[in-house]
Request: fold
Amino acid sequence: MILILNLSGVYRHQQFYGKDDQWIDLEDIPGTTGYCDDQAARMIRKRLKHCTPAEVHFIDNGNYHYLTYYWLEKLSEPVNLLVFDHHSDMLPPVFGKIMSCGSWLLRTVEDLPMVKQVLHFGMDPRYLSHIPTNFRDRVTATDDAEQAVRFLKQHRHRPLYISLDKDVFSNREVRTNWDQGRLRFPVFERLLRAADQICAIRGMDVCGESTVYGEQWRGEKFNRQLVRLIKSLKFYKKESRALLSQAG
Reply:
């Protein structure tokens, strides 16, 4: 199943998801854009209470990438994390412990012991220094596909969660609301299929919608392509069968 988290209204302009997919409305929650204050965090957790991380979650634009944290904290077993992102998302929080789209990954490695190893693919080299030295044994950053596959094989004994921020892609592929990297879709597809074959995937989320009026339709085309790929994975097919079994 695909789970749509509506925060900005962008998905109302798209139709890549189906009638059997789930829509969760978070648009009325204040204090969520870019940062997530304590009250917003409580409300988000309440609305996601009965949701499982073992689905595919579309979580709006890059300002809400911190929502990945709320899926990861639900995990009941140790996992590795594969992040596709042009940015590090490992900056120290600006206001106390308030989580943001720029700090959620740092918060993850600090606070969630179930997340063991992080593979960060596509980070701009300018941001490598954002990885604290005391976490460099847990966070591996690369933009080399072969190195990424070697990492997956080395850590194949542990399940994997995947988080995709579409700003990792070249703007020839898709437009987002942040500056973008240079990843092309065929390379991403090869890595995602490799992850699906090598590791037991426990869930996936996607962010990076454009906030520019008129770009939503380009985003729709890309999301359809992305959903076709995801639905072809054994991870998705397995989870779909499990959900159908529970419903029956």
The longest strand covers residues 115-121. The chain has a mean pLDDT of 94. The beta strands are 2-6, 22-25, 35-36, 56-58, 79-84, 99-100, 115-121, 139-142, 160-165, 201-207. The radius of gyration is 17 Å.
